[in-house]
Amino acid sequence: MNCQFQILSNNQLDLILPLVYELNEGNISKPILRSRFAEMKNQNYECVVIKKDEAIVGVSGLWFCTRHYSGKSVELDHVFIKPEHRGQGLGKAFMEWIYNYCKSKGCESIELNTYVQNYPSHKFYYNEGFILKGYHFFKTL
Asked: Is the pTM of this model over 0.70?
């Protein structure tokens, strides 16, 4: 597996737009994503990517905060690996890198949301030792 994991600087976030657009199946336009990422970069957000032969093939957002129930925490967001790079152990290696990085920043826990219909991700996260702790409710205002 010839890949590297790298934290992007805030001025490089446009590089992940194609992957996040694909993750959301085109339901959020690229201009809206660009605008949202411009705000996110100022909100305890970091982004880590997987590079394979200099191409970005995977991404995860990292939201850092302190929660009353879990202490210093990181929430993974928009975790995505391009389909043609799945099933090769890349996801497991990516998560291990993320765990180590977040521990080095003093995090005590890690959490994430996954789309209800994304059954392969559920199996993956269970295999990574995540437990189902609650429900994520959503309402558009």
From this structure: yes
